[in-house]
Amino acid sequence: MGLELYLDLLSQPCRAVYIFAKKNAIPFELRTVELLKGQQHSDAFVQVNPLRKVPALKDGDFTLAESVAILLYLSRKYKTPDHWYPQDLQARARVDEYLAWQHTALRSSCSQAMWQKLLGPVLLGVQVPPETLASTLAELDRNLQLLEDKFLKDQAFLTGPHISVADLVAITELMHPVSTGCQVFKSRPKLAVWRQRVEAAVGEDLFQEAHAALMKAKDLPPLDLAMREKLKAAVQVLLQ
C-alpha cells in the first residue's frame, strides 16, 4: 500500500496538507475521516492515529500524526522544491518560527471564530453571548496585526520572497473565519494582496477545491441529538 492521507477538508490543517500534496504531485490515497460524524473515534482510525485527530498519514507500516510533522515529512521524502521548507539555516528558522507561533495564536482565534459564529449555532444550536464573540474577534484582530507586523512585513510571503509551508498553514487558518462572513482581508490590503499571491502560487482551482466544503459549511444540517451532545462536550472550550 502506498501513501495514505487521512483528512477532513473542513479542518484547516487537513487543507494545508491536501494542498501541499496536490501542488507537489505527491501520489496519495485520500482516506476521508468525517469529524462531524465522529469517524475519528472508529476502531479502524484509532489504529492509524490513537490521538483521534486528523490529519494523519500512513506510509506502508509507518504512521504519523500532527499536520506540521506531516508537511515536513512529505517535503523531505518527496524532495519538494526548496522554497517550501528551505535548506538555508536562517530561512528554515523563519518557517519554523511561524509554525511554532501559530498553534496558540492564529489557530486558536480562527477556530473560536468559526465555532462561535457559525458551527456552534448551525450544528449545535448554541448561541454564544455577543460579548464572547466580540472578545474572540478582537483577539483575532490582534493576531492578524501580529501576522502583518511580525511575519509578513513588506515581504511577498510570510517568511521571504517565496511561498513556504508557513503560508499554506496561515491561509488555511484564515479561511475559517472567512467562511463565517468575517471580513478578514477587507481593511487589511497588505494581507489581501498576500492572499492573492498565495492563491496564485498554489493555483486558484486547487485552492477552491480544497475549500469547497468549508465554504458550504453554513448549509450543513443540524446534528442529531446524540452527536450534538458528544460534539458539544468536545468543542466546549471553543465556545467560551
From TrEMBL:
<dbReference type="InterPro" id="IPR040075">
    <property type="entry name" value="GST_N_Theta"/>
</dbReference>
<comment type="similarity">
    <text>Belongs to the GST superfamily. Theta family.</text>
</comment>
<protein>
    <recommendedName>
        <fullName>glutathione transferase</fullName>
        <ecNumber>2.5.1.18</ecNumber>
    </recommendedName>
</protein>
<dbReference type="InterPro" id="IPR010987">
    <property type="entry name" value="Glutathione-S-Trfase_C-like"/>
</dbReference>
<dbReference type="InterPro" id="IPR051369">
    <property type="entry name" value="GST_Theta"/>
</dbReference>
<feature type="domain" description="GST N-terminal">
    <location>
        <begin position="1"/>
        <end position="82"/>
    </location>
</feature>
<dbReference type="InterPro" id="IPR040077">
    <property type="entry name" value="GST_C_Theta"/>
</dbReference>
<dbReference type="Pfam" id="PF02798">
    <property type="entry name" value="GST_N"/>
</dbReference>
<dbReference type="InterPro" id="IPR004046">
    <property type="entry name" value="GST_C"/>
</dbReference>
<keyword id="KW-0963">Cytoplasm</keyword>
<dbReference type="InterPro" id="IPR036249">
    <property type="entry name" value="Thioredoxin-like_sf"/>
</dbReference>
<feature type="domain" description="GST C-terminal">
    <location>
        <begin position="88"/>
        <end position="222"/>
    </location>
</feature>
<dbReference type="InterPro" id="IPR004045">
    <property type="entry name" value="Glutathione_S-Trfase_N"/>
</dbReference>
<dbReference type="InterPro" id="IPR040079">
    <property type="entry name" value="Glutathione_S-Trfase"/>
</dbReference>
<dbReference type="InterPro" id="IPR036282">
    <property type="entry name" value="Glutathione-S-Trfase_C_sf"/>
</dbReference>
<dbReference type="Pfam" id="PF00043">
    <property type="entry name" value="GST_C"/>
</dbReference>
